[in-house]
Amino acid sequence: MSLLFTEFNLDDALAVAREEAREDGREEGIADEKIKIARNLLTRGSSPEFVHEITGLDVDTLNGLQAGL
To answer: Looking at residue 7, what is its pLDDT?
Structure first.
């Protein structure tokens, strides 16, 4: 109910949107880096289970990466 009486502030809304976009970008970058690391480890003969322990990526994803090498 109190939100109904809160004044909308465009600058605050834009600041929140920018911060959310930055956070999304960081998360995407981290995910991309995990995949690069996984590919490198798999290329060098590491097992999907070991790569899972290092990167946290699920084994099905790693098996898919391994099949594409």
So the answer is: 73
Domain carrying residue 35: 30-69
Asked if residue 68 belongs to a domain, the reply is: yes
Give the number of other Cβ atoms within 10 Å of residue 42's Cβ.
Answer: 20
Give me the number of domains the chain comprises. Answer: 1
pTM of the model: 0.73
- Give the per-residue SS3 of 2-61: HHHHCCCCHHHHHHHHHHHHHHHHHHHHHHHHHHHHHHHHHHCCCCHHHHHHHHCCCHHH
Work out the pLDDT band at 65, boundaries 50, 70, 90: very high
Side chain identity at 23, as an amino acid letter? E
